[in-house]
Structures are given as C-alpha cells and as structure tokens.
Amino acid sequence: MKKILLLLAIIAGSVICGYAFDKYTIDRDELPQEAQEFLKEHFPKAKVSMIKVDKHLLKNTDYDVKLTNGTKVEFNSSGKWTSVDCKDKEVPQKLLLKAIRNYVSKNFPQTFVTSVEKKASGYEIELNDGVELKFNLLGGFKSMKMDD
C-alpha cells in the first residue's frame, strides 16, 4: 500500500511539474491578443528581442517581453500590462492616468517617468532622477521615496 501511494505521489508530482515551465520565443503570436495590440499601439517600431512565457501551476501564465530598445513589458495571463520599464527612456504618456501625469509635471517639471508598475493597490512609478512615487488606483498621490 505504501509503495502504491509513493508511486502515485511521484506521478502526481511529475505531472504538476510538467505544467510549470518557462518558454522563450520571439514570436509575438505567442502573446494574448490584448498584449499584441498593446505593443503595436505603444511601441510600434520596437522589435521583440525575447518573450518569456512563464506558466505557473494553477494555469496562470505571465509574459515578460523584452524589446530591442531595452524596454521590458510584463503582461498577465489575459494580456493586460502589469509593468513597463523603459530604462532611461520615457514611458508612453498614454499609460499613465491623467492625475499621475499632472502630478509629475507639476511637482517634478524637469523629469519624466521611466517605469510604471500596476498593482492591486495602485501604481508605482520611477522618474529618470531615481525618485519613486506611489499612487492609488485613481491616481491620488500616496508616498515618495528618493534614491540615496
């Protein structure tokens, strides 16, 4: 009986591990339709250098896309963006809520947003001077952290 249970546990473990894997490609067709449209709209000239398809155990899949210009975009399983990191370039303005754009232009006029992350609690952005700002889901300012 113990041998049968052990055998079943090994089989179940190998099946579960078989469903959790990373796949690398450069084919945009591997992305959900919404993610493909996002890239066409916000980064029309940028080419894909790598797409990491990260399948998790519970059928959730994340997509990490790296563009040839250095930009990294992460998407969730439905193709909605969760973060955009443009390194030292400006994040497309359309990605930011109007309230966030207004706050940054008013309080940090000589800077621009280089990365944005969308979380359940709100947005986290980083400016080109290293300042990190947090906003709620409606774009209301929450906190600031300065680079040391």
Tell me what you see in this structure:
It is built from three helices and nine strands, in the order H-E-H-E-E-E-E-H-E-E-E-E. It is an alpha+beta fold and 148 residues long. It folds into two domains: 21-85, Inhibitor of vertebrate lysozyme, Ivy (3-Layer(aba) Sandwich); 90-148, Inhibitor of vertebrate lysozyme, Ivy. A hairpin with a 5-residue loop joins strand 2 (48-55) and strand 3 (61-67). It is globular, with a radius of gyration of 20 Å.
Just give the CATH class of the largest domain: Alpha Beta
Low-pLDDT segments, ≥5 res: 14-19
CATH architecture of the largest domain: 3-Layer(aba) Sandwich
Number of domains: 2
- Largest sheet descriptor: 9 strands, antiparallel
Q: Which strand-content bin applies to the residues?
A: 25-35%
CATH topology value of the largest domain: Inhibitor of vertebrate lysozyme, Ivy
Number of helices: 3
Structural features:
single chain; 26% helix; 9 strands; 34% strand; globular; alpha+beta; Inhibitor of vertebrate lysozyme, Ivy; nine-stranded antiparallel sheet; 148 residues; 3 helices; 2 domains
List the helices and strands and how they pair.
Blueprint lengths: L1 H18 L2 E4 L7 H10 L5 E8 L5 E7 L4 E4 L5 E5 L12 H10 L5 E7 L2 E6 L4 E4 L5 E5 L3
Antiparallel strand pairs: 1-2, 2-3, 3-4, 4-5, 5-6, 6-7, 7-8, 8-9
Quick rundown:
With 148 residues, the protein is of the alpha+beta class.
